[in-house]
Amino acid sequence: MEPIGGESSKDAVLYVNGVRRVLPDGLAHLTLLEYLRDIGLTGTKLGCGEGGCGACTVMVSHYNEVLKKCVHYAVNACLAPLYSVEGMHIITVEGVGNRKTGLHPVQESLARSHGSQCGFCTPGFIMSMYALLRSSELPPTEEQIEECLAGNLCRCTGYRPIIDAFQVFAKTDDAFYTNTSSSDLQSGEFLCPSTGKPCSCKSKGLNGAETCKKSTANENKYEPVSYSEVDGSTYTDKELIFPPELLLRKLTPLYLNGFGGLKWFRPLKIQHLLELKAKFPDAKLVVGNTEVGIEMRLKRIQYKVLISVAHVPELNVLHVKDDGLEIGAAVRLSELLQMFRKVVNERAAHETSSCKAFIEQIKWFAGTQIKNVACVGGNICTASPISDLNPLWMAAGAKFQIIDCKGNIRTIMAENFFLGYRKVDLTSGEILLSIFLPWTRPFEYVKEFKQAHRRDDDIAIVNAGMRVFLEEKGEDLVVSDSLIVYGGVAPLSLSAVKTKEFVIGKNWDQELLQGALKFLEIDIFLKEDAPGGMVEFRKSLTLSFFFKFFLWVSQQICMKKSTAIPLSYLSATQPFQRPSIMGNQDYEIRKHGTSVGSPEIHLSSRLQVTGEAEYADDTPMPSNGLHAALVLSRKPHAKILSIDDSEAKSSPGFAGIFLAKDVPGDNHIGPITHDEELFATQYVTCVGQVIGVVVADTHENAKLAAAKVVIEYEELPAILSIQEAVNVTRSSMEKFMWDGQEHFYLEPQSSLVWTMDSGSEVHMISSTQAPQKHQKYVAEVLGLPMSKVVCKTKRIGGGFGGKETRSAFIAAAASVPSYLLNRSVKLTLDRDVDMMITGQRHTFLGKYKVGFTKEGRLLALDLEIYNNAGNSLDLSLSVLERAMFHSDNVYEIPNIRIRGRVCFTNFPSHTAFRGFGGPQGMLIAENWIQKIAVELNKNPEEIREINFQGEGSILHYSQQLQYCTLGQLWNELKLSSDLLRAREDAKQFNLQNRWKKRGVAMVPTKFGISFTTKFMNQAGALVHVYTDGTVLVTHGGVEMGQGLHTKVAQVAASAFNIPLSSVFISETSTDKVPNTSPTAASASSDLYGAAVLDACEQNKGTRMEPLAGACYMQRIDLSAHGFYITPDIGFDWKTCKGNPFNYYTYGAAFAEVEIDTLTGDFHTRTANIILDLGYSINPAIDVGQIEGAFIQGLGWVAMEELKWGDAAHKWIPPGCLYTSGPGSYKIPSMNDVPFKFSVSLLKGHPNVKAIHSSKAVGEPPFFLASAVLFAIKDAIIAARAEVGHHEWFPLSNPATPERIRMACLDEFSSRFIDSDFHPKLSI
């Protein structure tokens, strides 16, 4: 090591879960996550690699020399450079608790509360909560708990059970009023806050054999954290303490190296830092690495020198002065937030207007893990045009202190610091030293604004910082000074100079407002093809923000002056205040035997909360194993002229490149028709098509080598939309468009392939819903019989259809080098590659005519629908067919014609997704239902009710409805939601509020259960009874979080009349149960439960331990193979008659929303859901599926927008996916859960068509989230009525802030759009 400006440390030391580790030189390129997984701590997961999902969360502890105490905080291990945590203690989920030594109460609570489904995100949630408890001197509030989880995403649960699990640790919990430990209480007892003794003063929900009603109040209370700076909490006697060595050890400067000549420095004094900056003027300064890390990982920018400035005291100052606040450039955002909150409480209110603005902006800046490490100076100097904080620094009159290598300091106003796109007023020899934020004066107001796709952890579409200083002149208030700064409308944070000049010297009145709006139109100029798109929306936001600022300042003045603004306008100034989530679950328990019907927790939940559950990428690699990376097309349609791999072959760690010519067997693949190539030969038909595969010694080296493969193309015309594919012409039919949706399973696609017996057999572990498809693809590609290929799947971290067919080519690609080199090969996709190449939910375009009476009764429907298949058929025809089956939703239509077309386009092939075309078919039905309501001036619910199908109805494909419960559950929901009163309350709210509107909607669903391809409705199972009386079950279904293994185990336990703990399901494997159908279509519990029951029936009488042993001694077979086929189904497409479905799952949902008409922001106030699930095998798991499906559906209808390079988005390269990661693609977060979230299961209606009278649950609830979409539309209708617009208007999904705001016509948006404006959509 080469000392720079001081003595360098000899050993780089790190503690992990209490174990001392010495970090060798040469690892500067590694992240903390890579290191942890390399040493076998695979509980910390790689979900996205950009700090956007929280799956990699760990807790960092270190001794703070300034505070003289240990600090604990959560970080994203995927972004933290390994050497940045030198001298610290890292606790991963494995260090919190495990099955052998005992679970931590945080883990136990989450498992018991059904808060872990697929389990991939679970360790991240555990660590975020654990870090909060370790860092809190007092029990945290419910708000703090939800805030600490803002950086964690979950795709399965809908978040409600996670919130429930963790809220028991909040200080509002009853147990915290007493000194009694909840562990001393009997089950179900309640501590009285008055006496501190167990009592029954609190009303209990009904529990028992008949009915279970649960609210968010959790019965399992935990003691509050017993705070200790070193030891942390005293939840258990095994809690990891802060290592004493680190308390005594003094930090020393570091100089270390990494791959490719990378140098890592850690100076401890400003002098040392300046010397390094002089020697390496192009060095990047890092604290949290939240920007540089993404640049190096995702953008492939190679920085040679990184200097960690986190420990330079001069950059970490945080001083309160008489005239303002001095903030060191390396101060972390979480520290800054604490300081702002402190000064707001301690100083005069008029001095802290800017501090309050920063508090609000930082709150929504990013997840807690990012704020814990991201520094102020990094955000400033990155100079992002959408920085949330830079407009505020500028508006608030902040000053930046800059120091050069010689120690000279200069000061510059923040408004003059930003020069252009990511360009600031810093020379290569200068660094930002500190920021000075002045206190505000009386009548000086600073306000923040931000609109993003999602409130939590999202980059802004447009943001702003605004300041005005008013002076009293007689009775008037005159603008003395002002600054209005916007982000997201220019290459840099833009000051509205002309507007500023106009307002100065003017009275603060309506005349100023109108004049300022006109000047803002001049100041803010966006070209039609401006990067980021949404030009009209962004322009309208600039005016909306200023209008909100004008009203807010006027409101502040009202408190001091007698002036007033209209009461109905006050809603524009009210900040978003989210109450704690209230959940309610109401279901009937119908026990059958020992286990069926019981709300058991997920069998793997305790493994998942401890990080012990293994996924495909967690499988250890043998010493000679290789990692693979795909060589991908960069053109949407082109002829391949040449492939130059010479540079790749000289890349470090390179072990081979394999192209189409190297495939031993058939290069053609496909789930139905072999219309795809494993490796492209002559032509590529989409961006992201696989051309070859590179293998190397590490994952990063494989990616580096693959990127060096040079491909020369001859570009050809590309088809980039459904319209281009079918040349849709104008017609008298109404047109409607549906957007697609990314699966965003938390576990990326992954396969590990290895050979056995010198290559005569091939085995693999894959993250797939269809192991048999992997087996088949690999066998065909390698030219082997299927009997020599085995695919195993333990569990997968979410699938939702995305791992049904599109995972198979990944395993096939990895199998080629594995087979030819006779070495293990692992191929795990990065999140951006996964999203780009594996397909999404199909986009649809529909045209319809509908006939109806003046009462609203349906007479006829003529419907044409088109789906965007992408560049191969995949399952697109089957998806289209189900969309056609479901295009009636639940409505009686006497005359109906439906025509469908699958469209080829030059995008990656789209595929199965929860609902499989059903939601798209039903959405267009609800669209024309609503249009009829508008035409007849009636509520949509009235139109729905008079057209309901019922018992005996004959559907348009000739199937007759049996056991239809639609009417009953609809009426129950109508009563429980009090629909009429909810409508009236919304109406009254809308009359009293001009700029916020509420809407309500109630939507039904009917979802057909079965694969629509008849032969797939079969299942096999293998049941072994051992001599100790325990049972091993193997079946063809895959556990992906939906609780399939748990339900199947319950079936087996009840069949043998043994405890559930005596039944074990290990994995799904093609050498145990052959020829299996994919785990899809919501039918897996029906199919595999029945197959297992069949096997158990064959083994009846051998179930108890003495009896099983006796049977063995008598040479009686204790193993049985079960098989099941769904009876009486089949559909003939030639005659268009038959029974494609075994039965239907019915449901309905009520939703109430509130929208901000000026920005398009919305939140769901209430969601009330009811489903008919017969007699549930496991009602708790079913409720979890309903909540998860609903929140995923909420993403589809209101949040998740795919943006492709097409005619509608010319700023994106043709055929490329822009929304390829959590930074740009926003799934719902915890903040998007309805305030009141209720789920009920219809009671007393057994299903005679499925095992134990149960019904399928996975897909049916998904569409019910459309109630939110139509509630949003209801609110928009109220907004449009304010300006005299009562006509019909379409609202495509997703109802993003852009679509909501631009549909709410007013005097601000009308400056940029006409009343028939529709935001652009990629279809």
Automatic annotation (TrEMBL):
It comes from the Eukaryota. The active site is at 1259 (proton acceptor). Mo-molybdopterin binds at residues 769, 800, 914, 1081. The lineage of its organism: Eukaryota, Viridiplantae, Streptophyta, Embryophyta, Tracheophyta. Binds 2 [2Fe-2S] clusters. Substrate binds at residues 804, 882, 916, 1012. Residues 257-442 form the FAD-binding PCMH-type domain. [2Fe-2S] cluster 1 binds at residues 48, 53, 56, 78. [2Fe-2S] cluster 2 binds at residues 118, 121, 154, 156. Transmembrane segments: none annotated. Homodimer. SMART domains: Ald_Xan_dh_C, CO_deh_flav_C. It comes from Salix viminalis (Common osier). Its EC number is 1.17.1.4. Its cofactor is [2Fe-2S] cluster; Mo-molybdopterin; FAD. It catalyses: hypoxanthine + NAD(+) + H2O = xanthine + NADH + H(+); xanthine + NAD(+) + H2O = urate + NADH + H(+). Keywords: 2Fe-2S, FAD, Flavoprotein, Iron, Iron-sulfur, Metal-binding, Molybdenum, NAD, Oxidoreductase. Belongs to the xanthine dehydrogenase family. Pfam families: Ald_Xan_dh_C, CO_deh_flav_C, FAD_binding_5, Fer2, Fer2_2, MoCoBD_1, MoCoBD_2. One of its GO terms (biological process) is xanthine metabolic process. It is an enzyme of class 1 (oxidoreductase). Residues 10-96 form the 2Fe-2S ferredoxin-type domain. This is xanthine dehydrogenase.
